[in-house]
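Re: [ENG-882] Designed sequences occasionally contain unexpected residues at chain ends

Forwarding the minimal case from QA. Structure tokens:
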């Protein structure tokens, strides 16, 4: 599991990696003439097999062209196309395609070589039901299967605002599906995507293709939440006895009544165990907790985690916040704040297997303290600075709003 988390972080921390150079759109247009046979003269792929490039982020296009050239993304058709392109060519071509409009999403006749001049092939009929299921998975992910909410990185309706995450809206279904199958088979590599696609079934992948090909068709469909299943394991039963000593601060069943003591009810087991280990090792510093964990074995920690995870949390003391909600679900691209939803999930339950904590129902005071600690790096036990990178960009006003909102999540 450590390997999974570590690499996930690598994928996530590449958020800030952008290619600084700006391209020349006119020069790019000339250089892109040879691409038109497949990607269309207007950047709309001439068939389902050829991705739309119109309106795609320039940085993403450059990154893919480099990957095709270097062979880290393998495709027999694109490899020879990319091999002749210099860095400057890639930057110019990226700028050109990024400047085109995808909203038409209809291929124009090829003005180029003629060899690939297929007429525009219509997308297959979109089955509304499947697109709705795709939308649900897109917006909510499935924490029980370790599938992240796609919306956290690829943006609302597939329009990503973070340059390193490709736009997926109005992309050919067949192309989307092929990429997800490639990520699943790891013939295309990106750690986050390999994890998520790896957990998707063929049906999920087909649903996702249908959804992304035309997100507007189901714009009014309300996404369904999958009810979490409470699992009472033997470890949880064993943990109950060991948790008695914790109740004086964390409350009975982990529902603390004092806001400075975090609620543990409903917190993810893996996350709790990690915190207990780190209070013991000193990686997370707290004089009270250090004393509490000194005598705990690894098994105790796992059982305590399993027990608290199985408990139902009571409602938090926060109230709705417009700013908090906007930052939680949308982040702030202009300030490079990744949306919290990407890791803490749509309902604030975190992602158990990845070690991402639940934040819903937690007290405002505790959430505020932790965000402030991460910002000041007084808490630095987050792997690869995942939380510190987010928290350092938050102003006090943002922290207050987020703490209220998260606490009010159910
Ligand atoms: C003969 C057809 C063909 C030509 C010509 C062609 N491409 Fe492609 N291109 C493809 C195919 C097929 C894929 C999808 C590969 C895959 O499935 O991974 C692709 C993928 C891409 C991608 C990745 C898109 C994404 O969303 O990840 C980029 C960027 C790209 N091409 C740019 C170009 C550029 C720039 C040119 C011209 C220099 C060009 N292509 C010429 C067929 C072509
Ligand atoms: C943690 C951020 C993150 C999340 C969450 C995420 N992705 Fe991605 N996705 C990426 C990155 C980064 C890439 C580009 C990989 C590369 O550079 O080759 C990508 C690429 C893709 C591509 C290929 C696009 C193209 O034009 O070739 C598809 C399709 C895709 N993601 C679908 C999804 C779906 C469906 C989900 C939800 C189940 C999802 N992603 C969740 C980060 C993410
Ligand atoms: C004397 C009071 C006290 C007792 C008893 C106590 N804790 Fe704590 N615990 C705290 C405080 C205070 C914090 C917050 C530390 C911080 O601010 O970083 C905390 C934090 C935690 C956290 C981190 C929660 C999170 O969301 O990151 C866990 C897990 C935890 N305690 C588990 C336990 C367990 C298990 C026991 C019993 C074996 C226990 N605690 C007993 C006071 C206590
Ligand atoms: C890239 C993934 C990622 C993103 C994005 C992210 N977090 Fe976190 N967050 C984590 C991880 C991982 C931890 C736990 C670190 C550890 O292991 O101690 C955490 C911990 C926290 C905690 C402390 C929870 C506790 O019980 O002590 C809070 C509060 C929090 N995050 C809020 C936020 C907010 C608010 C945002 C958005 C502005 C956000 N996070 C974005 C990964 C993320």
């Amino acid at each position: 599991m450590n390997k999974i988390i570590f690499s996930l972080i690598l994928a996530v921390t590449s958020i800030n990696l952008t290619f600084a150079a700006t391209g020349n759109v006119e020069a790019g247009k000339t250089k892109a003439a040879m691409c038109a046979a497949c990607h269309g003269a207007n950047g709309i792929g001439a068939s389902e097999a050829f991705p739309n490039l119109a309106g795609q982020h320039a940085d993403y296009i450059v990154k893919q062209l480099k990957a095709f050239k270097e062979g880290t993304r393998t495709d027999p058709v694109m490899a020879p196309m990319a091999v002749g392109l210099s860095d400057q060519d890639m930057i110019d071509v990226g700028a050109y395609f990024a400047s085109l409009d995808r909203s038409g999403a209809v291929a124009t006749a090829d003005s180029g070589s003629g060899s690939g001049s297929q007429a525009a092939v219509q997308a297959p009929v979109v089955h509304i039901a499947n697109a709705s299921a795709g939308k649900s998975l897109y917006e909510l992910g499935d924490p029980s299967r370790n599938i992240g909410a796609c919306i956290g990185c690829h943006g609302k309706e597939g329009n990503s605002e973070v340059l390193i995450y490709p736009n997926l809206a109005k992309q050919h279904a067949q192309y989307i599906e092929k990429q997800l199958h490639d990520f699943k088979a790891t013939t295309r590599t990106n750690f986050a995507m390999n994890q998520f696609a790896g957990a998707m079934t063929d049906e999920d992948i087909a649903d996702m293709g249908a959804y992304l090909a035309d997100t507007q068709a189901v714009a009014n469909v309300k996404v369904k939440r999958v009810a979490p299943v409470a699992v009472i394991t033997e470890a949880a039963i064993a943990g109950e006895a060991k948790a008695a000593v914790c109740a004086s601060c964390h409350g009975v069943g982990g529902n603390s009544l004092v806001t400075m003591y975090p609620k543990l009810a409903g917190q993810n087991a893996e996350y709790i165990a990690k915190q207990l280990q780190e209070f013991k090792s000193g990686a997370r510093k707290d004089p009270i907790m250090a004393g509490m964990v000194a005598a705990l074995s690894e098994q105790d920690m796992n059982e305590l985690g399993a027990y608290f995870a199985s408990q139902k949390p009571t409602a938090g003391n926060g109230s709705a916040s417009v700013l908090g909600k906007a930052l939680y679900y949308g982040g702030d691209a202009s300030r490079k704040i990744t949306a919290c939803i990407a890791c803490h999930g749509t309902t604030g339950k975190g992602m158990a297997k990845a070690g991402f904590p639940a934040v819903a129902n937690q007290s405002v005071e505790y959430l505020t303290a932790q965000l402030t600690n991460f910002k000041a790096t007084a808490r630095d036990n987050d792997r690869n600075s995942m939380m510190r990178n987010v928290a350092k960009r938050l102003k006090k006003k943002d922290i207050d709003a987020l703490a209220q909102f998260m606490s009010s999540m159910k």
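QA comment: On inspection the terminal residues look reasonable. The chain has four domains: 2-99, 128-218, 234-309, 322-408. Proposing we downgrade this to a documentation issue.
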